[in-house]
Structures are given as C-alpha cells and as structure tokens.
Amino acid sequence: MKAIRIALLIVASSATAAAAQTPRPTPATPAPPHDVRPSIPGRGALAVRSPQFADFPAGAVFRGRPAAVDVGSARGAASHRTVLRRGVAKGANFAGHYAVVTWGCGTACERFALVDVRTGKVWMSPMELTRGAQYRVDSGLFIANPLPGGDRGRCGSSAGNPCPSPLMLRGGRLVPLDSPPSHS
Fold first, then answer.
1. Domain range holding 76?
2. Alpha-carbon distance 155 to 87, whole Å?
3. 51, part of any domain
4. What average pLDDT does this structure show over 2-25?
5. Rg (alpha carbons) of the chain, rounded to whole number
6. CA distance 165 to 182
7. E strand residue ranges, the chain
8. Residue 41 pLDDT grade (very low, low, confident, very high; cuts 50, 70, 90)
9. Count of beta carbons in the 10 Å neighbourhood of residue 22
10. CB–CB of 86/176 below 8 Å?
C-alpha cells in the first residue's frame, strides 16, 4: 500500500512540475484581415495600419449637372433605373465624380452600384452589404461592411459576421486594395 502511495505522489508531483514548466497560452486577439496587406498604393512600404481615406485622394469634386443614367452600360442596371436615377440626381458622393446608389435586397442586405455622374456610366456591384459602407466624396477608398464604432472584434464566416472589405476605385469599379493594376 505504501508503494502505491509513493507512486501516486511521484506521478502527481511530476504532473505539477510539468504544468509549471509549460507556458500558459495567452488569449490571442485575431487581427482583422484588412490590417495586413501588401502596401498602401503609392507608399511602397509594408503597411499594418487600417487604410485611411486620406491615403486615396480623389480629384476635384464634380459640381455640375449629373448626366443621364446610361442603363444600357451595365447588366442589371435597367432593372434598377428608378433608384439609380434618384441617386444620381443627388450628385457625386464618392471619389469626386461617382454616386454610390444603394437599395435593399432583404433583411440585413443591401446592393449598390457606382454611377459616374459626368458620363452616366453604371457599374453594378456583385457584392452585397450587410452593414452598409463608408466612403467619402474626396476619397477613392470604399469600406464595405464596416464594423460598428470601429470595433475590431471577431469577424468572418466562423463568427457569422462579415469582415470589413477595404476597396479602392480603379477604372470605374471597386477592387480589393491588394489587386495588381490592370493593363488594359
């Protein structure tokens, strides 16, 4: 019986010593996917901060009379002609001469298009928004599905919460920040 107690004490003290030597895991806070990207265009160095509107300046803001919406310039635009026309009538609200026009597509769902208010040309986004978007008339940065209050909490399909998508205007359409330039 004494031998069993001694063996149990040895096993217990070995486990305690091993536990003391094993570093305890620290809870990791995952970085949002948009925090690590190749670079901020035109800056060259690796960037680990969130994109800023000032990093993507737009040209002069168009203040003239908006052109008529060209519903034939994009597939699906004719189906949304009324909302596109109403949105363009308000003038540019993104990247100097574009109107971001949105409409609902169900619960927690919003679709959008970009319309060049100078030419009327439409780009229908394939993306659905669940939390809207952030954009400015003086910048070419468009952040789809921003987290409320700048919250940097969990996002992604496993969290059931889409992550913010920073996009930039290129060639009249929105592309991910790390997209290489097109040579067309």
1. 34-147+158-176
2. 31
3. yes
4. 45
5. 26
6. 20
7. 98-104, 110-116, 122-124, 133-135, 141-144, 165-170, 173-176
8. low
9. 8
10. no
Q: Are 98 and 141 in contact (CB under 8 A)?
A: no
What's residue 65's pLDDT? Answer: 97
Smallest CA-to-CA distance from 99 within 129, 130, 70, 56 is with 70
Domain assignment of residue 21, yes or no? no
What is the model's pLDDT at position 30?
A: 41
**Residue recorded with tokens 């096993």:** 11
**Residue 67: both structure tokens together:** 């052109």
CA 98 from centroid of its chain's CA atoms: 19
The structural domain count of the chain equals 1
* The pLDDT value given to residue 92: 98
User: DSSP code of 183?
Assistant: -
Q: Is residue 19 part of a domain?
A: no
Token pair for 136: 């400015």
Res. 46: pLDDT tops 90? no
183 — pLDDT class (breaks 50, 70, 90): low
In a domain, 23, yes or no: no
